[in-house]
Specification:
Chain A is mostly helical. Helices cover 76% and strands 0% of the residues of chain A. Chain A starts with a helix and ends with a helix. Helix content of chain B is 76%, strand content 1%. Chain B has a single domain, classed as Farnesyl Diphosphate Synthase (Orthogonal Bundle). At the A-B interface, helix 5 and helix 6 of A face helix 3, helix 5, helix 7 and helix 8 of B. Chain B: Keywords: Coiled coil, Magnesium, Metal-binding, Transferase.
């Protein structure tokens, strides 16, 4: 196992997903579905660490990626104007990917994963919509919301396949990676709606500093997990790369 | 009057429909106040609940247990509701059933989260049923509905389309979900396979007739009855059956062109409605709807003797002859 093998595995999963949800009209107007390679890596982490893994597990991992792609499409819808053909089809691409993930799991008869992923989507929607319910929330509530957005679906996948031992490292690393992205956007002068919400909750305290502290805390946790783990060096390095 | 008729038709199912209504409300319960408000806003706007009713009626042809059947009836209505919330974003609709849409009341993003939330709740609900075929049928239906909507967007503002294009579109847009309501209700009710197929075809034919009537009413009903301006479909670029039948009429065509270009004035909209209403196209479209209705009734006749047959017939006739 080395960095190349890891990259190939992630690339292969990505290709499988893109092939499965390919739709010519949607592709033409809305572009390639959005897939986060960091999330794909964590979906594959148990396999890369040589846990029992079958073709059916690969299909299930693909469906998690498809749900991420579906919700990412809907995140691209403008708040006030979605009248362009591209935006209209972006709504439908999210719906189409949703239907496809359900279809794949229905074909394999994996009703438990359908239920768990549905729960995760509910959880995610409930956290995403909090940006329109800012009052009375703390900085940590926004961190939690981002953490749920990044990890809830993978968490349910790990739960169904009894990969619980990978849960903590996945949650800490993907949350840290997301917070890193938020910090970078803030530094560029393009804060996201979540960072604006964080600043709203913090009042006078600078949000950049709060983000740095949170990222640093989570990186320390990831480092501690990796030190105690038996993952091979390539996997450890891949996780370190994700959080840095 | 129409609402009264519907109430009478549903009278035998009243207690079961109440169960469905309660379940819908429970299913939409959320820890987010905003999601709660948006979902309940939609639920309280009402609707005919035709999909759950078809599930119940089809299941009654076999072994009927409301506690099992509700896990099909509720998700089908939720899927329908979720697609309406997203459709309103696509169509930029301000009003539905006389109420402000979720996207108008809040914004497009809230509508996207609300639709995704309702859709996920639907799937959570249906997973109580472990039967893989149920999920395969439902999943296929959902994919095909979206495919139908993609086609609808591609066909928008296109006057060179034909009636076949229209049928292809409404099959996916409406008929499939009603077809699946009947088929899934029958499967969960453990109806004989041959009769599952009959009920499935019945649902398809009723669905086709239902959508044609809906498209006729978009021209013939009043703004008040529709809860939105009459002729909205055409104004949004959706070329429905009456418009297709009239597109070559020299008196109507200039108005259709203006509607498609988005330059139709309020006065011209009223004039267009007048012309459409007194044209043969409405009658012709109604005849096509009747053909589907007859096919639906033929499927009912072929079912074995059962008290529900009359109800299936009556509901089909109501859907095909309704005035709102």
């Amino acid at each position: 196992m080395d960095a190349t093998t890891i990259g190939q595995a992630v690339g292969q999963l990505k290709t499988y997903i893109l092939d499965t949800i390919q739709h010519n009209t949607l592709l033409k107007y809305t572009g390639t579905p959005l897939l986060n390679e960091k999330q794909l890596f964590f979906l594959l982490l148990p396999k890369l660490n040589e846990e029992a893994w079958t073709e059916e597990t690969t299909t299930s991992a693909m469906t998690v990626g498809i749900v991420h792609a579906s919700l990412a499409e809907h995140d691209r819808i403008h708040e006030t104007d979605a009248t362009s053909k591209e935006q209209q089809l972006t709504v439908l691409s999210g719906d189409y990917y949703s239907g496809r993930y359900y279809q794949l799991l229905a074909q394999t008869g994996n009703v438990e994963l359908i239920r768990k992923l549905s729960e995760a989507i509910v959880d995610r929607c409930e956290h995403e919509i909090t940006v329109y319910e800012r009052e009375g929330r703390y900085f940590q509530d926004w961190v939690k919301a981002l953490s749920v957005i990044e990890t809830a679906l993978i968490e349910r996948f790990f739960y169904v396949y009894r990969f619980d031992s990978y849960l903590e490292v996945m949650q800490e690393a993907l949350t840290a990676a997301r917070l890193n992205r938020e910090l970078e956007a803030l530094i560029k002068g393009e804060p996201s709606v979540y960072v604006n919400c964080m600043q709203f909750s913090l009042g006078e305290q600078p949000v950049g500093e709060a983000l740095r502290q949170e990222i640093s805390r989570r990186k320390q946790i990831v480092t501690a997990i990796l030190e105690a783990s038996t993952y091979n060096e390539a996997l450890k390095q891949a996780i370190v790369d994700i959080v840095s | 009057m129409e609402k009264m008729k519907l109430k009478l038709l549903y009278a035998d199912l009243k207690s079961d429909i109440e169960v469905i209504e309660k379940e819908l409300e429970t299913a939409l319960n959320s820890s987010s106040h905003l999601l709660n408000d948006a979902s309940l806003h939609l639920l309280q706007a009402g609707g005919k609940r035709i999909r759950p009713v078809f599930v119940l009626l089809s299941a009654k042809m076999g072994r009927y247990e409301i506690d099992r059947v509700k896990h099909i009836a509720v998700p089908l209505e939720l899927i329908h509701m979720a697609s309406l919330v997203h459709d309103d974003v696509i169509d930029d609709s301000e009003m539905r059933r006389g109420e402000r849409t979720v996207k108008a009341q809040w914004n497009n993003r809230v509508a996207m989260y609300t639709g995704d939330f309702i859709f996920a709740r639907a799937l959570e609900h249906v997973t109580v049923i472990e039967h893989p075929r149920v999920h395969q049928i439902l999943a296929r239906t959902m994919v095909e509905i979206v495919n139908g909507e993609v086609i609808q967007i591609e066909d928008k503002f296109r006057l060179d389309q034909n009636i076949k294009d229209y049928f292809r579109r409404i099959k996916r847009k409406t008929a499939l979900l009603i077809e699946s309501s009947c088929e899934l209700g029958a499967i969960v009710g453990e109806v004989e396979p041959e009769n599952v197929r009959r009920l499935k075809r019945y649902g398809y034919f009723v669905g086709m007739s239902f959508q044609i009537v809906d498209d006729i009413l978009d021209f013939t009903a009043t703004d008040k009855e529709l809860g939105k301006p009459a002729g909205s479909d055409l104004l949004q670029g959706n070329i429905t059956l009456p418009a297709l039948l009239l597109k070559d009429d020299p008196h109507v065509r200039p108005y259709i062109d203006k509607a498609i270009e988005g330059t139709l004035t309020e006065e011209e909209r009223k004039e267009l409605l007048k012309l459409v209403r007194k044209s043969n196209a409405i009658l012709e479209a109604a005849k096509i709807s009747d053909k589907y209705l007859k096919k639906a009734l033929k499927e009912v006749e072929a079912l074995p003797p059962h008290p529900m047959k009359k109800k299936l017939r009556d509901i089909a006739l109501f859907m095909g002859k309704r005035k709102f």
